[in-house]
Structures are given as structure tokens and as C-alpha cells.
Design goal:
This protein has a seven-stranded parallel β-sheet with strand order 3-2-1-4-5-6-11, sandwiched between helices. The radius of gyration is 19 Å and the shape is globular. Helix 3 (about 85-105) packs parallel to helix 4, helix 5 runs parallel beside helix 7 and helix 7 runs parallel beside helix 9 (about 285-295). By secondary structure, the protein is of the alpha/beta class. The chain is built from nine helices and 13 strands. About 45% of the residues are buried. The longest helix is centred in the N-terminal third of the chain and has 21 residues, at about 85-105. The structure holds nicotinamide-adenine-dinucleotide. Nicotinamide-adenine-dinucleotide (NAD) binds near residues 7, 31, 35, 72 and 112.
Length: about 300
């Protein structure tokens, strides 16, 4: 099978490409290297900024590939300050990925959406049918991306799947709370806790995400479909600090700083829909957090 992975040099994209290549698939990566740095030498790499329309699609010489669209700026906090850049990376780039899908007559396009589309949902765990009500620009831009995906499916007949990821961690994770804590530990600087630290989110280990993505890609049958990909439980920032202390050892300081605009209070996704296709996470949120510190720091002290 032929695949295009946009953002294929990034954290998740790099793992997706490694997995596809190791499964002997034919993979073309499109990435502008704005934050990515992992290039699998067995993939075909095209350095391109998807904020512009990709016009040389004929040169790709691909027949009805599956497009996995991961290129974006995933930083929620930054999306509140740098709105225009985020819009172009999250919305314009998605439109251009959809145009690529249309021009290449793609057999399917998979879109990396986010739990942030729900905002501060009242229903926990939150099912896919729950109304979108984002509280960050990042979440709002992903809502727009899903809308464009559905429109392209209905009007151009391109099969598509939107995957609403919880927080992904482990492996070469390059941003987010575990990365920040490990990074500050290396600098011997105090870790930063946003707000009261009681905000609680669901964490998925990267290998569990890869399995879920492949199951959704291969088994979804509808023209347009949406799946939550999360864990069975959630883990608060204070619980993550407690786990981190086992790795950092005594003496590490923690500073409480102000809560961040756009940061949801609780996130726990209803995963019964993706589970009905035969997927379940192999480790819960706390285990995913620990495994991520194993990868970033080494074994606990
Ligand atoms: N990591 C998570 O916990 C998480 C959670 C929910 C959703 N997501 C989504 O998953 C996707 C991948 O996230 P990630 O964590 O791997 O982020 P990442 O920043 O590591 O990867 C994004 C990649 O996209 C590339 N890119 C950015 N703008 C581009 C452009 N205009 N043209 C071409 N390439 C561009 C970057 O260079 C990078 O390689 C994103 O769409 C993100 O919103 C991630």
C-alpha cells in the first residue's frame, strides 16, 4: 500500500513512518521540518510547507494512496498567542492536505484531531457524539479541520477518518508535560505546575496509539467517521509530579505558576467506539506516564 504522511518527521509522524516502513509499506513524507527532525531513510522525504498548495502531485507518482495528515502545530498554549500562524498550520495546511487527497484520488485520509475539540465537557467519559465546544484556538482549528474533512468526504467522495487523540506520550516525545519535566530536570531547574495541578487528563502510550490508528484506518467503513483515542482512566498533574519524583530523586523543586488559557480541567474520552473495532490500550494513564519517564530519563531511582 502507498502512504503519504504529512508531519512525518514529527513526534507521532516519525513513529507512524517507522511502523509503516517496517511493515514494508511505501511511504512518502511531507514535512517542512519546522519542529520535526526524524527522517526515516527508507521513506521518500519531501521538504514542503503545507501552508502552500502542493502542485507537483503528478511527480509523486502515487496511485490512490492513504494520506495520514499529522502536520500541525500541536502547542495549545502557543495557539492562544500566535493565532495566525496556528490557523495556517492547522487549518490552511489541512485544506491543502485535502486538496492533495482530491488530486491524487486518495483511497482514504486520516486526520489527527484532538480531545481539545470538546473543551470543558460535562459528560465523562466524553463520547464522540458530545457537542464540540473548544476553549482553545488549537481546539477550534481542529473543529474546522474536521468540518472540512466531512465536507470533502460528502462532496468529493474521499473516505476520511478524524481521530481525536488524548495526550500521547512515550518514545521520542518532544513536547508536553513529561517532556517539560524531564527537560527542566536536565537543567536542574524547578518544574512548573500550572494552576492547582488538579487538572486531570488521559494519557496514551505511543505504541498503543499506533495500533489504534492502524485499526481505525483499516476497519472504518463509513465515508466519514470520527473516533476518540484515549485511555480507560486519567491522571492529574499532581499524580504526574508524584511519579516524576521517583525518577528525579529528592531535592527537585516545584513552582506553582498561573493556570494557562486554553488548558481544559478534565479530559477522559469514551473509547467504546474504537474498542468495538478490537482495540484496547495495553497500559493505563499512570503506566503510560511512567513508561514515558523511562524513555526520557531512564529507570526510576
Ligand atoms: N502529541 C499529542 O499528544 C497530540 C494530541 C492530540 C493531537 N495531536 C495531533 O497529532 C499531530 C502530530 O502531533 P505531534 O505531537 O507529532 O507534533 P509535532 O510537532 O512533533 O509534529 C508535527 C510535524 O508537522 C510538521 N509541520 C508543521 N507545520 C507544517 C507545515 N505547514 N507543513 C509541513 N509540515 C509541517 C512539523 O515539522 C512536525 O514534524 C498534530 O496534528 C497534533 O495536533 C497530537
Amino acid at each position: 500500500m502507498e502512504y503519504i504522511v504529512t508531519g512525518g518527521a514529527g513526534y507521532i509522524g516519525g513513529h507512524v513512518v517507522d511502523m509503516l516502513v517496517s511493515n514494508k509499506q511505501d511511504v512518502t513524507v511531507i514535512d517542512d521540518m519546522s519542529s520535526g527532525n526524524h527522517v526515516n531513510k527508507k521513506s521518500k522525504f519531501i521538504k514542503f510547507d503545507l501552508r502552500k498548495q502542493f502542485t507537483e502531485y503528478k511527480k509523486l507518482d502515487l496511485e490512490s494512496p492513504i494520506i495520514i495528515h499529522l502536520a500541525a502545530n500541536p502547542d495549545v498554549k502557543e495557539s492562544m498567542n500566535n493565532i495566525q500562524d496556528h490557523y495556517e498550520r492547522d487549518v490552511t495546511a489541512t485544506l491543502n492536505a485535502l486538496e492533495l487527497a482530491r488530486k491524487l484520488d486518495a483511497s482514504k485520509i486520516i486526520f489527527s484531531s484532538t480531545s481539545a475539540v470538546y473543551g470543558n465537557a460535562v459528560q465523562m467519559p466524553t463520547p464522540e457524539s458530545y457537542p464540540s465546544n473548544p476553549i482553545s484556538n488549537y481546539g477550534m482549528f481542529k473543529v474546522l479541520g474536521e468540518g472540512m474533512l466531512e465536507y470533502y468526504s460528502e462532496n468529493y467522495g474521499i473516505k476520511s477518518v478524524a481521530l481525536r487523540f488524548a495526550n500521547i506520550t512515550g518514545g521520542r516525545v518532544s513536547h508536553g508535560i513529561m517532556y517539560n519535566f524531564a527537560h527542566l530536570l536536565k537543567k536542574n531547574a524547578p518544574i512548573e505546575i500550572w494552576g492547582d495541578g488538579k487538572q486531570s487528563k488521559s494519557y496514551i502510550y505511543i505504541s498503543d496509539l499506533l495500533n489504534a490508528m492502524m485499526i481505525a484506518t483499516n476497519k472504518s467503513k463509513k465515508t466519514f467517521d470520527v473516533f476518540n483515542i484515549g485511555n480507560v482512566d486519567s491522571c492529574s498533574v499532581l499524580e504526574i509530579v508524584e511519579i516524576f519524583m521517583k525518577y528525579a530523586g529528592p531535592g527537585i523543586k516545584a513552582n506553582h505558576i498561573g493556570s494557562q488559557a486554553g488548558d481544559v480541567r478534565t479530559m477522559l474520552l469514551d473509547i467504546s467506539k474504537i474498542s468495538s473495532l478490537g482495540w484496547k490500550p495495553t497500559c493505563n494513564s499512570r503506566q503510560a506516564v511512567s513508561k514515558s519517564f523511562d524513555d526520557l530519563i531512564g529507570k526510576a531511582k
